[in-house]
Amino acid sequence: KIVSVGCNNFHGGYQITEHVIQNGRKNFAFLGEASLHAPEFLERYNGHCKAIEAHNLSINKRCQVDAISTEESGYRAACQLIESGEQFDAIFGASDLIAVGALKALIEHNINVPEDVALVGFDDIPISAFTSPPITTAKQNTILAGELLVNSLVKLIQGEPVKTILMPTSLVVRKTCGS
């Protein structure tokens, strides 16, 4: 039996997308691999899509561009999206690193964030607070995750039952969404 401690990626994807929708955005792009090869990104994408559907908006599958969790990959994916000609007013980077790369591409293409395009990431890594503008993101409580993981290991060693724990994310609102 596999037991894990992690964040609820689906909830985080839903939560952050809903925040962007509440800030008036309607045409979303998602940068990150949405497949079984990247299960965390897939869950974030599924939550993202569910929020879009819950607000009766359309999902443009052509605005989902694969990217791995690096700045360079986010940059390339955003450039590909921009050059595709697809219309979007918001980008969800499946990780903050992807969002950092996307921010660079948007700036280089003279697209203003957040005026023209809102941008969000996921993870709340330290650099996301220091970009210009700082990136709105979904925060994972890694300290609590570590504590829960240790508690689960102790229970396993003692022969006690353990279960998978999915922790909620929290929204960290910065400047890339307008509010």
Summarize it.
By secondary structure, the protein is an alpha/beta fold. It is 41% helix and 16% strand.
Strand content: 15-25%
Structural class: alpha/beta
How many strands, what sense, and barrel or not for the largest sheet?
Answer: 6 strands, mixed
Question: What is the typical, i.e. mean, pLDDT?
Answer: 94
- Enumerate the strands of the largest sheet in spatial order, edge to edge or round the barrel: 3-2-4-5-6-8
The stretches of 5 or more residues where confidence is low (pLDDT under 50) are none
Based on CA atoms alone, the radius of gyration comes out at 17 Å
Number of helices: 5
Distance between the termini: 43 Å
Helix content: 40-55%
Secondary structure tally: strands = 8
Global geometry: elongated
Describe what this molecule looks like in 3D.
It is built from 5 helices and 8 strands, in the order βαβαβαβαββαββ. The protein is of the alpha/beta class. The longest helix is centred in the first third of the chain and has 16 residues, at 39-54. The radius of gyration is 17 Å and the shape is elongated. It has a 6-stranded mixed beta sheet with strand order 3-2-4-5-6-8, sandwiched between helices. A two-stranded parallel sheet has the order 1-7. Helix 1 packs parallel to helix 2 and helix 3 (71-84) crosses helix 4.
